[in-house]
């Protein structure tokens, strides 16, 4: 295959519009604010989980790595499993009190239990 038939690195092959200008996406990573400025919501979910309870921490603003670190610390404190998906920390079981206690101890003062 010749070099001129390959797609460029952005996925564009050819445009028929003579006025076309490629605009780059601004994938700026949002900085993680201080813990006291985070507004986290803690709730219990059982829907679509086979009747098993899961504590969900939602509303985190910042980098994905910081969210994963928060999830790891919460799982360690609660002594249970869990994961981080779609901007939420999922902790197995009804751990709302423990999660709220840990967050308040670590300066996450704007937390609500729903």
Summarize the structure in words:
The protein is of the alpha+beta class and 114 residues long. The protein has one domain (33-113): 2-Layer Sandwich (Translation Initiation Factor Eif1), CATH 3.30.780.10. 22% of the residues lie in helices and 22% in strands. It contains two helices and five strands, in the order ββαββαβ. It has helices at residues 64-78, 96-105; strands spanning 39-45, 54-58, 82-85, 88-92, 110-113. The chain has a five-stranded mixed beta sheet, covered by helices on one side. β3 and β4 (88-92) form a beta hairpin. The longest helix is centred in the middle third of the chain and has 15 residues, at 64-78. The radius of gyration is 21 Å and the shape is elongated. It starts with 38 loop residues before the first strand and ends with a strand. The relative contact order is 0.19. The mean pLDDT is 86.
Indicate the topology.
Blueprint: E1 39-45, E2 54-58, H1 64-78, E3 82-85, E4 88-92, H2 96-105, E5 110-113
Reading off the top of the CATH hierarchy, the class is best stated as: Alpha Beta
Q: Can you identify the CATH superfamily?
A: SUI1-like domain
Named CATH topology = Translation Initiation Factor Eif1
Distance between the termini: 59 Å
The low-pLDDT segments are none
Q: How many domains, as an integer?
A: 1
- Sum up the overall morphology in one term: elongated
Helical segment tally? 2
In a few lines, what is going on in this structure?
With 114 residues, this protein is of the alpha+beta class. The protein has 2 helices and 5 strands; from the N terminus they run E-E-H-E-E-H-E.
